[in-house]
Amino acid sequence: MANQQTRRDYIVPGPIDPELLRLQSQHRSEGIWTGTMEHEVLTCRRQGNILHADIDDRIIPHLHDSGFIGIARLGFFPLDWHLISAFVERWQPKTHTFMMPIGECTISLQDVDIITGLPIHGSAVTGMSRAEWPEVCELLLGARPPPEMIRGHTLKLSWLTDEFGAIPHEADDLKVLWHARAFILPLIDLIFPNKTNSRVNLMFLPLLEDLREVATYSWGGACLAFFYCEFCHVVVTEAKEISGPQFILQIWAWERFKIISPSIRDPSAPHDAPLGARYVTKFIFFFH
Fold first, then answer.
1. pTM here?
2. Half-sphere exposure (Cβ direction) of 131: Cα atoms closer than 13 Å
3. Torsion angle of alpha carbons 60, 61, 65, 68, nearest 10°?
4. In Å, how far are 49, 81, 121, 236, 237 from 27, measured between CA atoms?
5. Of 7, 30, 52, 246, which shows the fewest CB atoms inside 10 Å?
6. Which residues of 137-158 are buried (b: 16+ CB within 10 A; e: fewer)?
7. Could you tell me if residue 285 is inside a domain?
């Protein structure tokens, strides 16, 4: 009985056997347990300024063709930095699972599909990070950015905003296609956000040449892989901020742990909206 009481009182912060989960000594939770690190609220970086107050009806067919209609319907809600930071402390990079009191759990491909509407089947999202980006922009967007707007493989979001506002009433099919690509490019940056809110990544622009082919890529799979990668990096470093598609974690946590879930603000989401649209304040189409 005494031995049982002793075992009950002795709490081990990490795995008893370190052979399998060898990164525990570097884990944020280890530092919190030993007192060398405090519970820290991470800065959650998120890309996405609103380029359009609404979606022009003329580009909606292109959004359907490309498979991005769902994420375009997600709308806006603020990120809960405290919630995301708490889940970081419970992330196990070796198993890609959250270590919860009730057991292990994780975000699956099916979750990404239901939450965002992104395609989860198809080819891997791959491409080149080097190209003559002014020429690529001119070919696929119909406009050539000034050299000072491009840095590496990123483009100033302000140029995209100024160049692609409201679609002219007399725009032909080609110009509408250019606007559709310019609309989708920041949407992709919601999935793969960088450390700045002022630039979009041009690496994905060549993939938008044929919007019907875009839907054959597993964007949901790439999104989940990027989420795993970002969490695995942050959890074993002293990073002060986290990037990646953290909105997926927040919606997933709200759906799985109802005790922390807010009330659904508008259950009458559009018919083509993904599950995540249930929590929006109002139906706007880019994260702000």
1. 0.83
2. 20
3. 10
4. 34, 19, 33, 5, 8
5. 7
6. beebbbeebeeebbeebbbbbe
7. no
